[in-house]
Amino acid sequence: MSTEAGRKIVVTGATGNVGTSLVRLLAEDPAVASVRGLARRIPDLGPDRVEWSKVDLAAKNVDLVREFRGADAVVHLAWAFQPTHDPVATWRTNVLGSIRVFEAVAATATVPTLVHASSVGAYSPGPKNRSVDESWPTHGWPDAAYTREKAYLERYLDTFEFRHPGIRVVRMRPAFLFKRESASEQRRIFGGKFLPGPLARPELLPFLPDIQGLRVQALHTDDAARAYQLAIHTEVRGAFNLAADPPLDAEILGELLGSRPVRLPRTAARSAIAAAWGLRLLPASPHLFDAVLRLPLMDCSRARTVLGWQPRRTATEVLEEFLHGLQEGAGAPTAPMQGRKVG
User: Kind of pairing, strands 244-248 and 216-220?
Assistant: First the structure.
């Protein structure tokens, strides 16, 4: 229902890692008339043409139909990684909250486009020596809350698309997303709020654990945001893998940090993570560690040929920028992204 004045876009999770990048892009987009950002805590900032609404997707009485009315597209980014010790709490926000978003889009009857932030984590275990396309099964890794929830929403959207064929549904499946401003947030989410960011300095890491299966893909958050922007404006449907080359492993990370990779048995690494998680010293669970070791490498050909997208930064450049952000305690002026240097 776009007009001559431009499109109206609603973004959930607008103050997070991807949300801050996408809102900035859309605010500068001449084809966009206005952006409404939904977040649990409204930031004291905002580019022109951006309005904010305080919304908690976990709340049963949230009125999303009102928030979505008149929108040309809803981009659903909101996600809670913690508390990892309480999977019921993350299920309430991530799964039940997402379902509220999907059903409100359908109930509004005027929103023609839904763009959903899925993930590489939705994929079933796959190969590390070749890449898979979007047809690879999306059953996740059942033991980890994050992958279980992403996979469940893929199944829900299968049914949603069948029931609402008039709504254009796009599923983005990005690799691990990093930018300088996300460093403090991601350190808190995965390493804990007391983990010193300066530990990322090369002189403090002479050795680097080399764990079998730890070969993953990464992408700059701004590059992911451009893919979302293209999905809003392009009449595409379905899933898109998003990642930059090259795949990251201990050898590449060792070169960046000047550290020597040392083979560490998978069981030893998992035992250490499990012990730290059990003592609540580490937010990232051993179940997520298991899932990461089994993630397939993604083929992003469809995003290039159908969406007209390709990353502007290599995965190595992304990781280098993120490591500098860790050292500096980099962040952004939103509640999830606040910068803080520890140590």
Answer: antiparallel
Is residue 155 within 8 A of residue 99, CB to CB? The reply is: no
CA 116 – CA 289 distance, rounded (Å): 24
Tokens of 211: 């764990």
Q: How many CB atoms sit inside 10 A of residue 260's CB? A: 12
* DSSP state letter for 335: T
d(CA 228, CA 226): 5
- Residue 30's DSSP bridge partners are none
Rounded to an integer, what distance in angstroms lies between the CA atom of residue 226 and that of residue 37?
17
Give the separation between CA 116 and CA 102, rounded to whole angstroms. Answer: 9
**pTM attached to this predicted model:** 0.94
Q: How far apart are CA 274 and CA 152, in angstroms?
A: 25
Cα separation, 278 vs 235, in Å, equals 47
- Transcribe 209-234 into DSSP letters: EE-TT--EEEEEHHHHHHHHHHHHHS
Residues 38-90 have pLDDT tens digits of 999 998 776 778 999 999 999 989 999 999 999 999 999 999 999 999 999 99
The sign one gets for the Cα dihedral 64, 65, 66, 67 is positive
CA pair distance 65, 310, nearest whole angstrom? 34
* Among the listed residues 177, 249, 185, the one whose alpha carbon sits nearest the alpha carbon of residue 219: 177
Sign of CA dihedral 126, 132, 137, 141: positive
How high is the pLDDT of residue 176?
97
Distance in angstroms (rounded) separating the CA atoms of residues 321 and 341: 16
Residues of the chain with pLDDT under 70: 1-5, 46, 193-205, 341-343
Structure tokens at 36: 């409404």
Q: Which residues contact 160 (CB under 8 A, 6 or more apart)?
A: 102, 106, 167, 169
- 50-54 and 260-263 beta bridge pairing: unpaired
For residue 150, which of 31, 37, 225, 239 has the smallest C-alpha distance? 239
Which of these, 204, 222, 187, 197, lies nearest to 317 by C-alpha position? Answer: 222
